[in-house]
Amino acid sequence: MTDPRPLAAADDVEQGKVVLRTEGITKRFGAVVVLRGVDIHLKQGEVLGLVGDNGAGKSTFVKILCGFLRPDSGRIILDGKDVEFHSVREARRHGIEALYQDLALVPQLTVYQNLFLNREQTFGGRLGFVRRRKMRELARQHLHQMNVNVPSVEAEVEQLSGGQRQAIAVARATLEVGKVLLLDEPLAAMGAKESALIIDLVHELSASGDTSMIVIDHNYAHLFELCDRVNVLQDGKVTLDKIVRDTSIEELTELMLSEYRLQVLTARTQLKGRVPEVST
Amino acid sequence: MVAEGSSQGSLPDASPVAPSGARQDRARSVGRFFIVHREVTIFAVLVVLIVFFAVKNGEFLTYDNIVTIGQYVAPVAVIGSGEVLLLTLGEIDLSAGQTFLMSAWITLWLQQDGIPIGWAITISLLCCAAVGAFNGLFTILFNVPSFVTTLGTYYAMLGIVLIVSNDEQVSMVGITGRFGQIFGMSNWAEMFWALGIVVVLHVLLKAARFGWHVTATGGNKLAASEAGIPASRVKIWCFVIVALGAGFVGILDSIRVESLDPASPGTSMMFSAVSAAVIGGTALTGGRGTIIGAFLGACVLGVLNDGFELIGVSANTFTLMLGLVILAAMALNSRLGVLGSSRSGR
Fold first, then answer.
1. How many angstroms separate the Cα of B3 from the Cα of each of A71, A163, B7, B83?
2. Contact status of B213 with chain A (Cβ, < 8 Å)
3. Which residues in chain B touch residue A106, judged by CB atoms under 8 angstroms apart?
4. What is the ipTM of this complex?
5. For chain A, which domains are there?
């Protein structure tokens, strides 16, 4: 593979600066190597799609970018500066927000409490008394702006439907406009109406030019609708990096299938070596 | 991972409520009311009990008797409120009763070694905090249920007290003057401290960032940590708070009673405290807890205990009643839970 750096540098001149870049991100869980050196770059206002088979390491990669996991090695460069996130809060402070695949909300807390989870508006310094009224008001405004309908910001999330919860999760990720928004399968488990809402939102955010996004989705049709560029993650590495109009659903499918065929082939050869062949 | 195909069946917006849904809706909102305001139910029960005993026995509402009830209620309320924090986290501290006991003994031992009472109390409380920190750290580092960790520390502390005391009852050092009055000698000292602690813990749980993080960690640990909440730290702090509270009321109690028994009070104190929390409407499943409820639960226990004695029912009957009350409270909890959380069309 060619070194992406000179390429990106050339793009910088043409299409604006690179907001986020990773170099050689690796991560293993015990004996399992999930990421073997992931290099990506994300330009201002760009929407980058991340494709890959189950277990290719997409979610792990996203969790590293948002400070939830630490990489074993590699660099994360934000706005030209090397950064290291020790926590989600730290990543947030740097303007990286995430919407996780599991859309984790706390069912027993209210809508506004979930929106402000761990970024509560407080007074009283270290005592941290919460400003309920202010947060309720901000939550109402934000949900209204995002066209999200819930019975009340004071409703417990437990009472909401699956789609409403998803919308809340998305609303939470966009509560503070960050530099980078990571969306891990934002459209999974979404009805048509909510899907449209998310797609609109992504377009709106990217049009504003302030927020760059990385989107993970299994549905290529969604990806092609959402993204400017796609990267394919296979076996812990980026194996394809193309602008959406230069590639096609067919190409991506073929790439994934070829990997699958290769795996089947390898598995077969390995089996042949070990298992005495059954004569037919 | 959810395949996108399978999700299409469940459209997000609530399906239109069927005609029969109106009644269901009302049941639901009644259920929700009592879920959100669990304290109202338990308060009503408390009032009924007080009226009942007051009518049955003229002595019930005398000053002396109210003092007696208050002295029973205070430690239970404090430890129960602490347990609420842990139960909200989905944890429990079975050793709190022994911390209650041991703190007084440590204070006494230090005093006998000639350390001034103020310092003795301070050092004793630090020991309690260490016990709490140990409970929390052990639970998290070894990933064992706190039920088991605190069962271990429960026996360990009981053992320490039995060994060092030679299993003999002794009298607690008498403390005189204003200091003694404040730290347990006066009739209402323990109750004032208890009220203060309950209010502080209530504010902590409901109106402070820390309390929201407790609820979040107990309700959905994954969500909490994804939002960057340090779940382990939150848990350890709660164990420390419980141990400190238990230790403090343990010292106050011993100063008031002026004697120390190595074996008896720890276990029953812990069970009373957890009962108070449960009767007050805190579930053991995590994510929900009410400190006011635990306080009212402690009052109910105190009133029942004292009331039965006054009207001449034996302590054994009280024990039976306590069991039934806990079962009833749990049944109510789960029924209301079902009513409250059922959504239309499911």
1. 28, 15, 7, 41
2. yes
3. 215-216, 219-220, 223-224, 287
4. 0.81
5. 1-95+179-244 (3.40.50.300), 106-176 (no CATH)
